[in-house]
Amino acid sequence: MTSYFFSFEGPDGAGKTTIISMVESFLRDKGWDVVATREPGGIEIAEKIRDIILNPAHKVMDGRTEALLYAAARRQHLVEKVIPALKDGKIVLCDRFIDSSLAYQGFARGLGIDEVLSINQFAIEGYFPTLTLYFDIDPKIGLERIYGNEKREINRLDLESLSFHENVRKGYLQLVERFPERIVLLDASKSVADVFADAISILMGNLEKNMP
Ligand SMILES: Nc1ncnc2c1ncn2[C@@H]1O[C@H](COP(=O)(O)OP(=O)(O)O)[C@@H](O)[C@H]1O
Ligand SMILES: Cc1cn([C@H]2C[C@H](O)[C@@H](COP(=O)(O)OP(=O)(O)O)O2)c(=O)[nH]c1=O
Question: For the whole model, what pTM was predicted?
Answer without folding.
Answer: 0.96
